[in-house]
């Protein structure tokens, strides 16, 4: 049974940073791609970032240049840091490994 648990969301002021975490159990995050998606109210799901099993990374245009995705094999966790947060970054963020999704963590950006 694969489980993904996200954490790290919360309320942050514009210009601030958040580090989201996706803790996996039942499968190694290093075994295949892990993706972070987000969905803002009234909008479709958006791919935010991907880390490949060889460590290659890919970012969505909306966060490119101000986000970093990384994997920690020791804790079997994938982190996503987003800097210079904007109100339009507010969303539910979820991670995905293979066919499995986490429940998500909410990011709110407001002053």
Summarize the helices and strands and which ones pair or pack.
Layout lengths: L2 E5 L2 E3 L5 E8 L8 E6 L5 E7 L5 E3 L7 E6 L4 E6 L8 E7 L2 E2 L3 E5 L2
Parallel strand pairs: 2-11
Antiparallel strand pairs: 1-3, 3-8, 4-5, 4-9, 5-6, 7-8, 9-10, 9-11
What would you say this structure looks like, in words?
With 111 residues, the chain is mostly beta strands. 0% of the residues lie in helices and 52% in strands. Strands 2, 4, 5, 6, 9, 10 and 11 form a seven-stranded mixed β-sheet that branches. The chain has a four-stranded antiparallel β-sheet with strand order 1-3-8-7, with no helix packed on it. A hairpin with a 5-residue loop joins β4 and β5. The radius of gyration is 13 Å and the shape is globular. The N and C termini lie far apart (40 Å). The mean pLDDT is 96.
Percentage of β-strand residues: over 45%
The CA-CA distance between the termini, in Å, is 40 Å
Main sheet makeup: 7 strands, mixed
Mean model confidence by pLDDT:
96
Q: Total strand count, please?
A: 11
Number of helices: 0
> Which consecutive residue ranges, at least 5 long each, have pLDDT under 50?
none
Task: Determine the fraction of residues in helical runs and give it as a percent range.
Answer: under 10%
Radius of gyration: 13 Å
Shape assignment = globular
Structural class: mainly beta
Order of helices and strands: EEEEEEEEEEE
